[in-house]
Amino acid sequence: MMSWVLQYLVGLHQLGHEIYFVEKSGWRNSCFNPVRNVMTDDCGYKLKQFMSYCHVSDLVIDGVL
After folding, report:
1. Nearest to 21 by CA among 39, 7, 41, 40
2. For the chain, what is the domain count?
3. Tell me, what's the pLDDT at 10?
């Protein structure tokens, strides 16, 4: 996720909007894990990073699908 996306999410949240972030990945091995330096189907690293950004930005995460 690029930093400007998070800025939009935070700004819209601060304006009182209910935020939904959906990222489409319709192909195999579409998630990059920089720790292992591989493309994979496991988006766990990216999801963990996104959740930490949301926590720092005071965005509330109700659930992740």
Report:
1. 7
2. 1
3. 84
